[in-house]
Write a structure and sequence with these properties.
6-stranded parallel β-sheet, DNA-binding, Rossmann fold, HTH_LacI (chains A, B), 3 domains, homodimer, 6-stranded mixed β-sheet, transcription regulation (chains A, B), LacI family DNA-binding transcriptional regulator (chains A, B), DNA binding (chains A, B), 14 helices, Lambda_DNA-bd_dom_sf (chains A, B)
DNA sequence: CTGAAAGCGCTTACAG
DNA sequence: CTGAAAGCGCTTACAG
């Protein structure tokens, strides 16, 4: 069982009251300088730290932000987390992170758990399963308890809260436009995330851009089963005379590159490839992948800033929620012409 | 500011005392069935949840484990985290994770912060900077406060605590033995982690195994600057007549494969490649990388189990610490013969 | 300048 | 069977 020095013990040893010790540690002007010094000295000696549980119980705030991520082996979320962490710690907030692993049940469980642990607010992206089932009741508790919530990336229209999203549709358009500009005529879109809000938007963008250009066509390869993704992409590349691939998630484009190697197709000479998310796979593919960067770190920082703002306005019990859109960038590397 | 129903409010509305309500919620046999039912009904209606801060303050335990990771964009640590999480949540424990980003200062800060937040125990791998500076004073606080600590993977001999490590030296030996068995004569070892305990052990293993085999030689490529890693590996491959590469961290082997593509070297025909860590890069390289798996998930679960055991033995204030070793496996894929 | 008292939301030994 | 009281470790308005 953990042991810690308390105000009580310091008070006893100094022959002072608990109140005086408490005030001294805050350098309260009420207290004589001499007493303040005595108290600090002993506190330092014992390495006294106030008990955070007691402080939080009293103040009704924990200075903690709960963060829920669908997945962590994903550079986008990992970087968002980093952005949140930076901004939060700059402002004296801690973060507690839970990974839902794309499970609705886990998401519900973690929201309850963190709410029960009295985090001051939430930042989260919905799990895949939650988006598919479209069950959002677990967020009503937060509303009822008056706990602010910021959703990012994977959001739901049915929850009224602040949101930070990426301009996914525009991003796809920009990518496709680049492919067309460099001479591609038959563009494949590979997606494992057609169930997600972001996947839908990205696909829509590609469709719109293609249909706005005469003589260019789109072939869609939706992948249901991650297990067979490689094989599906390989046979797709073999059986379709395409000259470009747009991968809508982090891995699809990388796999397209690998399968092209296998089939002996040159990149970018025969096939141009663009992916989403500036992650490890993109950096360590050969040739290096041209990608859409979602500026994950900025996005995280932005979400944190909005939350901190909500937390500082303790007065307003209800407020008008807002949605901010983060602009993406197309980063040209070696997998496109 | 968050609002929550409390025992007090329930008591008032039910015309009962706080004690009776509290006991009823726990189905205490002292209380009449009728009262218990009344209380539960209202509690359900209001969705009452006890305030975790108050419970923890009273019980002096938070059911929370603090986890410190050097890096998260690293499959090994991400999977260890997953293993810890599984085991912890199975036993009603939550985890709070902090990423040190290989910084000594951050590590000190987080240890203090989590200790101050009253986590029940710690599981951590040291940051690179901490291992280089070899400053370990921040763990004395934990000892003084009687908070159990489990170190894994990157550990220090100078801290007396439970440890879970990987048989890194044997792992390298096994890898090199396989290379030799398949006919490799001149083996390169590429390392960006020669400062780390694990990096040293892996290198040692490779050296020992090579010197035990006549006619086989080792070439070492230590890389100081991650920025120029690719170029260094490329020119190394060009200027050395090697027939095998052992990459001691997650990325080195992947880069070796990419640079081989660039130089037109066939894998595994001309060069065999083995890497450490069964991560995304290994899975999505072409050809698929033969790797040493450290069984990260098991390792995490094991660390959690040891900690939970320590936490359940509240009686013992001092105990004999132990070190457990997790066996690695060589997983043969397509980058070796 | 210092301290006693109330209170944050719980739990539990004790009294009735 | 129910409740008053003490206490976990703090903060702060109030009294002296």
């Amino acid at each position: 069982m953990r042991k810690k020095v308390t105000l009580k013990q310091l008070a006893k040893e100094l022959n002072l009251s608990i109140s005086t010790v408490s005030k001294s540690l805050k350098n309260d002007s009420e207290i004589s300088e001499k007493t303040i010094n005595r108290v600090h000295e002993l506190a330092n000696f014992y390495n006294y730290k106030p008990n955070a549980l007691a402080v939080s119980l009293k103040s009704n705030k924990t200075n903690t932000i709960g963060v829920l991520l669908p997945e962590i082996l994903n550079h986008f979320y990992a970087k968002v987390l980093y952005g949140i962490e930076q901004e939060a710690s700059k402002n004296g907030y801690k973060i507690v992170t839970c990974i839902t692993n794309e499970s609705y049940e886990k998401e519900v469980e973690y929201v309850e758990m963190l709410n029960y642990s009295s985090v001051d607010g939430f930042i989260l992206a919905l799990s895949k399963e939650t988006q598919m089932l479209n069950k959002l009741d677990h967020f009503k508790d937060l509303k009822r308890d008056n706990v602010p919530l910021i959703m990012f990336d994977r959001v739901s229209n049915e929850v009224d809260c602040d949101k930070v999203i990426v301009d996914d549709k525009d991003a796809s358009k920009t990518a496709v436009r680049h492919l067309i500009k460099t001479g591609c005529k038959k563009i494949a879109v590979i997606s494992t995330i057609f169930d997600l809000s972001v996947g839908k938007l990205r696909l829509e963008g590609a469709r719109e851009e293609v249909s706005a250009n005469r003589g260019v066509s789109l072939v869609e390869l939706p992948i249901n089963n991650i297990e067979t993704e490689e094989k599906e992409i390989e046979s797709f590349l073999k059986n379709n005379e395409i000259d470009a691939v747009l991968g809508l998630d982090e891995t699809a484009a990388a796999i397209a590159i690998n399968m092209s190697h296998k089939l002996g197709y040159k990149i970018p000479e025969k096939i141009s490839v663009i992916g989403f998310t500036d992650g490890l796979l993109a950096k360590h593919s050969y040739p290096k992948l041209t990608i859409i960067s979602q500026h994950a770190e900025d996005l995280g920082a932005k979400a944190a800033r909005i939350l901190l703002e909500r937390l500082s306005n303790t007065s307003e019990n209800s407020y008008k929620t807002k949605t901010e859109i983060v602009k993406t960038s197309l980063i040209l590397r070696d997998s496109t012409i």
